[in-house]
Amino acid sequence: MQSVTVDLEAASTAQLVDAVSAIAAELAQREAPESAAACLELTETLAAAADMQESALAGFIRRVDATGEQKRWGFPSTRAWLRSRLGMRENRTTERLILARQRHRLPQVAERLAAGELSYGYAATVAQSVARLEDTDCAQAETTLLSFVDQGFSAAKVGVFGRRICDVIAERDGTETAPGQDASAATPNPGSPAPGPWTAAATSRAG
After folding, report:
1. Residue ranges of the DUF222 domain (predicted)?
2. Is-contact 206 189, C-beta < 8 A?
3. How many whole angstroms separate alpha carbon 174 and alpha carbon 151?
């Protein structure tokens, strides 16, 4: 059993990563507690911690991607590096890469993810929804989609609202659909969403 002692403020990023790795290795060897109630609470706490780690991962991946560092290690692209070196499935590779590349355009999402106030699932959904939008539309869509998150809609429904926003923008700009977006998704009954720049667009014309 290893002993981990870290001064959080004084530790370097590398030291913090090493500490997290050591704790994860020890935790993985432990048996689950007998109490189901304890397991439920521990699961929620650990999942929230994992979401915050995804914030750090997005920052690391973005730096590698922006500089092309993976090429020095023999990988032709960031996607190839994530798939090969980290063993990620294609869907997870795409999800993490999109979040890393969109993070700087989503200040509210980035702040809330890092603070543990937004799950990775929601963050990845918003990032995918705005990936092909111009900066102005991106900012408006971020605010609107987060308002749906705050109302308790699932990540899947937030994704549907995001696709609907892209459809409306495509119609406004005179194209069939926004690049990379599926225009065939139906819009669910949203109840009474909070007002926002794209709320009407996201919730109009089901089917």
Report:
1. 42-174
2. yes
3. 32
What are all long-range contacts of 139-143, with beta carbons under 8 Å and residues at least 24 apart? 139/105, 140/196, 140/197, 140/198, 141/165, 141/197, 141/198, 142/105, 142/106, 142/108, 142/109, 143/108, 143/196, 143/197
- What local confidence, expressed as pLDDT, does residue 1 receive? 58
Do the beta carbons of residue 58 and residue 100 sit within 8 Å? yes
Q: What is the CB-side half-sphere exposure of residue 128 using CA atoms within 13 A? A: 23
pLDDT per residue as tens digits for the range 3-19: 778 788 899 999 999 99
Q: In angstroms, how far is CA 3 from the centroid of its own chain? A: 32
The residues, ordered by sequence, that sit 6+ positions from 49 with a Cβ below 8 Å of its Cβ are: 116
Contacts of 177 (CB under 8 A, 6+ apart): 166, 167, 170, 183
DSSP structural state of residue 34: S
Write phi, then psi, for 11 (nearest 5 degrees).
-65, 145
pTM of the model: 0.81
Q: pLDDT tens for residues 34-63?
A: 999 999 999 999 999 999 999 999 999 999
Distances (CA, A) of 89 to 94, 105, 152, 175: 9, 25, 29, 32
**Residue range 26-41: mean pLDDT, rounded:** 96
Contact indicator for 162, 180 with CB cutoff of 8 Å = no
